[in-house]
Amino acid sequence: MSTLPTLFVSHGSPMLALDASNPAHGFLKSLGASLPRPEAILVVSAHWETATPRITGAEHPDTIHDFYGFPEPLYELRYPASGNHALAKQAAMLLNPAASVDPIRGLDHGAWVPLLLMFPQVDIPVLQLSLQTPLGPAHHLKLGEALAPLREQGVLIIGSGGATHNLREYFHASADGTGVYQAFADWLHDTLSRDDREALRHYRTRAPDAARNHPTEEHFLPLLVAVGAGGRKATRLHASFDRSLAMDAYAFAD
User: Fold this and answer.
1) CA–CA distance, 1 with 249 (Å, rounded to integer)
2) Using CA atoms, how far apart are residues 195 and 197, in angstroms rounded to an integer?
3) Residues near 101 by Cβ (< 8 Å), separated by ≥ 6?
4) Does 1 score more than 80 pLDDT?
5) What percent of the chain has pLDDT over 90?
6) How far apart, in whole angstroms, are the C-alpha atoms of residue 228 and residue 185?
7) Which of 28, 42, 83, 171 has its CA 20 to 30 A from that of 54?
8) What domains sit in the chain, N to C, each tagged with a CATH number?
9) How do residues 140-171 score in pLDDT, each as one tens digit?
10) Do the beta carbons of residue 181 and residue 170 sit within 8 Å?
11) HEC states along the chain?
């Protein structure tokens, strides 16, 4: 069995699931078929934060519609993937003694929206791992490093967040994917290309306008897990903008 890469994808608005005009929609629809078939998928989403690491262990995790004010067809979508309790226990053991399996938690839109596009057959078991946002980038790099052995078992590790994520500016007329957003995306590409993990750990002070591109950190941290779990070679698979949201995606391979 070949060792899988890890991925980072930007999931943007929940409407990405339905909006075929968004370039990232078409990219994600083609991405799954370009990969070796995983035995299981572990997603780290920006939308589940806990004090200590938690991993979903439900046999049939629910589809969580953790948003409001969107068109009704979005709420009708389901991603009825199976879980894998034994793999969840193994992943928890790899992390640290404080990690645990959550027997109830389902999949939030940061997990199921990209998976719905990437793997629409819904025939691969899916787990989700929570973030510990206050612990910052270094902690999440270590989470990824601890999970790296799962790649040798055919587990596809996906960080799902946003290359940039300023929702307040998303609704401004000037939020056109230029200026500060482009500068941050360019810095990120250069930093990942050089595998400069020290710069990633300290991106709040080293990246241009980091606090404006990420007013809060939860959409950046899934990237750190993917970097930590992946190989040293970063490949940008996609780059586009949805207003102030950079929709970039990366693979990390040996």
Assistant:
1) 24
2) 6
3) 54, 55, 56, 57, 85, 88, 89, 92
4) no
5) 91
6) 19
7) 28
8) 6-253 (3.40.830.10)
9) 999 999 999 999 999 999 999 999 999 888 77
10) no
11) CCCCCEEEEECCCHHHHCCCCCHHHHHHHHHHHHCCCCCEEEEEEEEEECCCCEEECCCCCCECCCCCCCCHHHHCCCCCCCCCHHHHHHHHHHHCCCCEEECCCCECHHHHHHHHHHCCCCCCCEEEEEECHHHHHHHHHHHHHHHHHHHHHCEEEEEEECCCCCHHHHCCCCCCCCCHHHHHHHHHHHHHHCCCHHHHHCHHHHCCCHHHHCCCCCCCHHHHHHHHHCCCEEEEEECCEECCEECCEEEEEC
Identity of the amino acid at 215 = P
Can you tell me the distance from the alpha carbon of 180 to that of 209, in angstroms, rounded to the nearest whole number?
7
Long-range contacts of 198-204 (CB under 8 A, 24+ apart): 200/137, 200/141, 200/224, 200/227, 201/136, 201/137, 201/138, 201/141, 202/137, 203/137
The C-alpha atoms of residue 131 and residue 45 are separated, in whole angstroms, by: 8
- Report pLDDT digits (tens) over 184-212: 999 999 999 999 999 999 999 999 999 99
* Angstrom distance (rounded) from CA 84 to CA 39: 11
Assess whether pLDDT exceeds 80 at residue 177. no
Compute the half-sphere exposure of residue 22: CA atoms within 13 Å on the CB side of its CA.
23
For tokens 């270094």, the residue is 138
